[in-house]
Amino acid sequence: MNTLLQALVSGLSIGSTYALVALGFSVVYRGSRVINFAQGAMVLAGAYLVSWLALDHGVPFIAAIVLAIAVVATGGMLFDATILRRLTAKDINSSVIITLALSIGLAAVIEICFGTTQRELGDPWGADTVSVGAVSLPASRVWGIGISILVAAAFVLLDRGTRFGLAMRASASDEEAALAVGVPVWRVRSLTWAIAGVLAVIGGVFLTAYPSSVTPTVSSAALAAFPALILGGLDSPSGALLGGVVIGIVQVLAGTYQPTWLGDNFDTVAPYAVMIVILLVRPYGLLGTRPAERI
Amino acid sequence: MTQVTPVRCFSALLLVACLATPIVMSPGFVSVCVFVLIAAIGAQGVNVVTGYAGQLSFGHAFFLAIGAYTAGVLGGDHGLSALIWVPAAGIVAAVIGALIAPTAVRLRGLYLSIVTIALVLVGQYLFVNLDGLTGGAAGRSIPAFRIGTLDLSPGRELQVGPWQLGRDQLYYYVTLVLLVLVCLYVRNLGRSRVGRAMLAINEGELGAAVLGVNTTRVKVVAFALSAFFAGIAGALYGSYLSYVQPDQWSLILSVEYVAAVIIGGSATVFGPVLGAIVVFALPAVIEKLPFLHDTGVAPANVAAIIYAVVIIAVLLKMPRGLIGLVDTFTRRISTPNKLPPSAGDGGLPAEPPAVLAPRLGRSQHP
Q1: Cross-chain residue pair A109–B107, CB shorter than 8 Å
Q2: I want to staple B111 with a disulfide (CB 3.0 to 4.6 A). Which of A27, A266, B98, B107 is the partner?
Q3: CB distance A22 to A240 below 8 Å
Q4: Which pLDDT score is estimated for B304?
Q5: Could you tell me how many CB contacts below 8 A there are between chain A and chain B?
Q6: What span, in angstroms and rounded, lies between the C-alpha atoms of A54 and A68?
Q7: In this structure, are residues B268 and B321 in contact, taking their beta carbons and an 8 Å threshold?
């Protein structure tokens, strides 16, 4: 029972980070109809920037995060404005490949700057753990859950309660119609990339804080956000949040209870197995919308 | 009947260069060429499913692996001839592709891409754990290409006329012949009923369905064909490397194949070959650059950056891929006076200006 409870709580804490990364994908998808495959590299860039500022330059941790957010969000907006929008062949495949190219290039630049050795994040929590009854969790993970809930709530408020959110939903639902009624579609789109940058840095911080560390493999955590994203439905932010939590819990449960006959590393593929099963039943995810088709 | 035109002269020169490469160039260069030729065979597979049918699949690494392990089991464990294991590698991969395809084709656009990513990751997990077939994480050996007395094992040589051909040279010729066959097939496919159906799906699936294309069946065929070429490429790749590990069949490998097709020019016969040259020869070329050794920067990282910049440049400036440049070039040398000079626009004569407004017309839901 305690094992189960511990697994559920750990799963929730990892899942809340996945949820942030998946939300980043979903926001960009709604704004640009592109899956930003560079989200993983943006997460990586955010984590390295925070670590570099906080450890090598003695910048206070919060300030380091704010600076990293400024850099990554600006980078995302610039990429969208200077490259993605100028794509001449405007089909889905080209836009996927172009974000993949950004991802490959960015990861290589990071590796040239910082090497492949792992480094610490420079977070203030260290190796502290918080215990409630039989369940214990690293302090960073507890903060991770809290901050993720705050960020998710802030996003929902923005999306549902402000004119900007309305503009975002309008341009997601039909770009041309939104443009026709005066929504500044391009500005909205830039802001979705900025939001993705914010989410990438915050996600990166909690993916690399103790007990993890900052390594190039962190970008593969974005791969774990894919099942979360698909599970919820590509164009549904609330689906991304739900999917993130579900996938985190599935992964930890699979890791805790995997029988030996399933072999090594079953927990790394369990989220994908869940995703495939869900897609067989609902091809557009749990909360995604099935698009109407026109000729 | 056969006129001597500049294009024909150029093609003949190219053919001679292709045939002479193994004899005149260094073994290291020939080895890079073999990897490029094998990759070009695999890239034609991506070309069928992504270029012609427009289904963006990242599952290629999985089917390459299936091909390599089929070669290992049939050629290595059972000692069969390459005449059997090369086609078998393609067929096994195609059958598995056809089994997975009905599930995959239910999904559209980006959902499909992500599910094929899952295929690669689940595949790597299976390859680590099915150690009877794959040797587990440690890997397994794949036999050399051997048909009767034509044996491409290390150390063997073949005397052809005045030339002593070693392993690299022989692999070069074998893969060149196979690539030519695959290119011929793809050329014919583009002119066939099913090939045109694939292009129709690429243009718009609903439209194709309304025109009477059985979209599910055509997409399954595209998947199976793609897997077939991947299987053959994987078998040759494993055989040339002689040893493979599950780590190799990673998502990055799939991305390289897709990038090769996009860079070269999708839904063309020679585009993927051109793209394979760019993508798969680049790291080897960069490794040779002298000034890199002084800076201590890993060549793989420099290759990655160049390759990212090339992809972005091609997609922004040459929507038809590098083959568009070649087309412009051949048109210019064959009709020097008829074509007005254009500023190297990548071969699209009536390219619309890159306007900063959303595209009007069909919306792009997944």
Answers
A1: no
A2: B107
A3: yes
A4: 84
A5: 157
A6: 10
A7: yes
Q: pLDDT digit string (tens) for B343-353?
A: 444 444 444 44
Q: Using CA coordinates, name the residue in chain A closest to B103.
A: A280
Name the DSSP letter for residue A129. Answer: E
CB-nearest partner of A92 from B110, B300, B357 = B110
In this structure, how many other beta carbons lie within 10 angstroms of the beta carbon of residue A77? Answer: 18
Q: Is A61 on the interface with B (CB under 8 A)?
A: no
**Rounded to two decimals, what is the model's pTM?**
0.87
DSSP assignment string, A187-234: HHHHHHHHHHHHHHHHHHHHHHSTTS-B-GGGGGHHHHHHHHHHHH-T
Would you state the structure tokens that stand for residue B192, as one six-digit string? 């066939």
Strands (E) in chain B, as ranges, are: 140-141, 146-147, 150-151, 158-160, 163-165, 243-244
Measure in Å the smallest separation between the Cα of A127 and chain B Cα atoms.
32
Contact A92 B109 (CB under 8 A): yes
List the structure tokens of A83. Answer: 């490259």
Euclidean distance between CA atoms B124 and A61, whole angstroms: 38
**What does each C-alpha distance from A15 to A7, A207, B15 come to in angstroms?**
12, 10, 56
Which residues face B151 on adjacent strands?
B146
Query: How many angstroms separate the CA of residue A173 from the nearest CA in chain B?
Result: 10
CA B212 and chain centroid, separation: 30
pLDDT tens-digit readout, B230-247: 999 999 999 999 999 998
**Pick from A216, A35, A234, A103: nearest CA to B255:** A103
Q: Which of A90, A106, A272 to mutate: most B Cβ within 10 Å?
A: A272
Residues 254-293 of chain A with CB under 8 A from chain B are: 262-266, 268-269, 272-273, 275-276, 279-280, 283-284, 291-293
Looking up tokens 């700057």, which residue turns up? A113
DSSP state, residue A150: H
Q: Do the Cβ atoms of A88 and B302 come within 8 Å?
A: no
The answer for A 11-40 residues in CB contact with B (under 8 A) is 29, 33, 35
- Contact at CB, A88 and B316, closer than 8 angstroms: yes
Structure tokens, B76: 């290595």
A101 residue type, one letter: A
> ipTM score of the complex?
0.85
Cα atoms in the Cβ-side hemisphere of radius 13 Å centred on A285: 32
Burial of residue A134 (CB within 10 Å: 0-12, 13-18, 19+) is: exposed
| Cα–Cα distance list, B232 to A71, A214, B50, B55, B168 (Å) | 45, 39, 18, 21, 18
H or E element at residue B17: helix B6-24
Question: Quick one: closest CA in B to A184, which residue?
Answer: B357
pLDDT in tens, chain A (295 residues): 788 888 888 889 889 988 999 999 889 988 878 888 888 899 999 999 999 999 888 889 999 999 999 999 999 999 988 888 887 656 777 888 888 889 989 988 998 888 888 888 877 877 778 887 778 888 888 888 999 999 999 999 998 889 888 988 888 888 888 889 988 888 888 999 999 999 999 999 988 887 778 888 777 777 778 888 888 888 888 888 998 999 999 888 888 887 777 777 787 788 888 888 888 788 777 777 776 665 5
CB contact under 8 A, B251 and A111: no
Q: Compute the Cα dihedral for B119, B69, B181, B29 and give only its sign.
A: positive
Q: Which residue has the tokens 């941790």?
A: A61
